[in-house]
Write a structure and sequence with these properties.
The chain is of the alpha+beta class. The protein folds into four domains: about 55 residues, no CATH class; about 130 residues, Beta-Lactamase; about 110 residues, Four Helix Bundle (Hemerythrin (Met), subunit A); about 160 residues, no CATH class. It is about 45% helix and about 20% strand. The protein contains 17 helices and 15 strands. Strands 4, 10, 11, 12, 13, 14 and 15 form a seven-stranded mixed sheet that branches. Helix 7 packs antiparallel against helix 8 and helix 8 runs antiparallel to helix 9. The longest helix is centred in the middle third of the chain and has 27 residues. Pfam families: Fuz_longin_2 (PF19037), Fuz_longin_3 (PF19038).
Length: about 500
């Protein structure tokens, strides 16, 4: 619709609050019909579909297992979105422990419920990004709590700014009550899979714009696709696999013909040339999907790695059994402001009078530190609604360009602060007339909102040299704005004493 009619709308509202949301991904239209108000749900549908199917969404139609997995992921996201602080703000809550052990080889994650206790990666493995870690946490919640290993082939986004579809196999093990261990192995050829995804992206972009028959727009889209094909060729040349090389040569013969047709059109702007190119491009897309499956899949590696995991489970359970009680307590209660068992936490009761709750997020690693909400306590639902409303209110104003706000209701006073620092820890001032309203809901699943924020508000600085942090505070209603602001400054300066180092490594191998 956008190509043909210039329609940039993403939703329509009907009577009785019924709404239809729609978005496009890889040639498929995603629709969400609802009378609810879960912002960003349709974007999460696309994100999870990309993790499950990559660029080939048709797999949802022909493979029931992938369709079922997508439904389970969406169900778990909805559940966690309404009960988990970390999933709501799209950050990773790490349990507060003190351990620094050396580690080696493969991705391994130890989770206690929806909290990360430890992440371990080998020196040879690609970096596991924060968004992939968050997805893995949501994926884990789809597993039934049995001793059977659940194995899935998934497509991770990778650590680049733009998401890729990098094939991995994940084995999920339920160790003890609420404790899960994940092993994540790379599949196939990572560089080839990543550049193949770029080919799909630019191919679909070309298919969309050529409807308009605007020569300049088509030329730009064609040049982007041509560059992506060149990068794919360069990466395929680095591998030695007869079946891949043979299939790739056939693809390149097709591409040479398609390239000639587009160049004919760009010279003559005749409709016959573009029609022939469109027909050939559609056939090329189908073959490209087959090539992607050839490069990405590896049933033998899935079986080999699963056998390895099966063999080490008895030793793992024996080694971790002494920590069972610790895991179970941590899963329910990471730490509370009211706890008197820790001098560090007791400090917060004395130094921050009136502080009811806080959420601190390092938006460079997307790691979150926050007191646990006891959902079984009296008035738990009341507190949950207050905190969820606070997070929603704060992010709504962030999208309007407000990075610091203080407000109150009949019960509590609230504060939200987002700030930037340089590598030396000194604050960075941002323009007072800044606006970020053009972005989607703040988070990382469908796009790293905070990376875009850095690029928009501080365009002359490298995003890698800018640190970004968020702090949400809830105080008793009698707390003055000046008092809340003073405590927020102290809290931001001292929270590292509680959260410790950003990673805690444990060797699971």
């Amino acid at each position: 619709m956008q190509c043909q009619f210039g329609n940039t709308y993403t939703a329509m509202q009907f009577q009785d609050d019924l709404k239809i949301y729609f978005t496009e991904y890889m040639g498929y239209l995603f629709l969400n019909i609802s009378n609810g108000n879960i912002e960003g749900f349709i974007e999460k549908c696309v994100v999870f579909a990309r993790y499950v199917c990559g660029p080939d969404i048709y797999q949802l139609h022909i493979e029931d297992s992938k369709a079922d997995l997508l439904c389970s992921l969406l169900d778990q996201w909805l559940e966690l979105h309404s009960h988990s602080q970390s999933v709501y703000v799209e950050a990773i809550e790490q349990l507060v422990v003190n351990t620094q052990q050396d580690c080696s080889k493969v991705h391994a994650l130890l989770l206690v419920e929806d909290k990360l206790l430890s992440l371990y990666s080998s020196v040879n493995a690609s970096q596991l990004s924060s968004v992939d870690t968050l997805f893995s946490i949501i994926l884990t919640q789809t597993k039934e709590k049995t001793e059977t290993i659940t194995s899935r082939q998934i497509l991770l986004a990778g650590s680049d700014d733009d998401p890729k579809c990098i094939p991995h196999v994940v084995h999920i093990i339920h160790l003890v009550e609420n404790v899960f261990l994940l092993y994540i192995f790379e599949l196939g050829y990572t560089a080839v899979s990543a550049t193949l995804y770029e080919n799909f992206y630019h191919l679909h972009a070309l298919q969309q714009v050529q409807i308009q028959r605007d020569k300049d727009t088509i030329q730009l889209a064609f040049e982007n696709l041509e560059l992506a094909v060149k990068r794919l060729n360069d990466n395929v040349k680095k591998i030695r696999n007869t079946s891949i090389e043979t299939y790739h040569k056939q693809l390149m013969k097709q591409w040479d013909i398609i390239k000639g047709k587009y160049k004919d059109y760009l010279k003559t702007t005749q409709n016959d040339a573009i029609l022939r190119a469109e027909t050939l491009l559609h056939s090329y897309l189908g073959d490209l999907k087959e090539f992607y499956n050839l490069v990405s899949g590896s049933d033998s590696l899935m079986g080999t790695t699963k056998n390895y995991v099966i063999n080490i489970i008895p030793k793992l359970k024996a080694d971790l059994i002494i920590f069972t009680n610790f895991f179970q307590v941590k899963g329910v209660k990471n730490f509370e402001l009211g706890s008197r068992n820790s001098l560090t936490i007791n400090k917060y009761m004395e130094d921050f009078p009136g502080l009811v709750h806080f959420i601190y997020i390092d938006r460079n690693t997307h790691r979150m530190t926050a007191p646990t909400l006891d959902m079984n306590a009296e008035k738990a639902d009341f507190m949950r609604k207050k905190i969820w409303n606070m997070m929603s209110f704060a992010h709504t104003h962030l999208r309007q360009g407000h990075t610091s706000i203080i407000w109150r209701d009949m019960t509590f006073s609230y504060g939200y602060f987002l700030w930037f620092e340089n590598q030396g820890g000194s604050p960075i001032k941002i323009p007072t007339n800044s606006t970020a309203i053009v972005f989607r809901t703040p988070g990382i699943l469908d796009n790293d909102y905070f990376l875009k924020l850095k690029k928009t508000l501080l365009p002359k600085s490298s995003p890698t040299k800018i640190k970004c942090y968020e702090l949400f505070c809830v105080h008793l209603g009698l707390t003055t704005p000046a008092g809340l602001l003073d405590q927020a400054r102290k809290l931001a300066a001292t929270v590292w004493e509680l959260k410790g180092f950003p990673t805690h490594a444990i060797d699971f191998l």
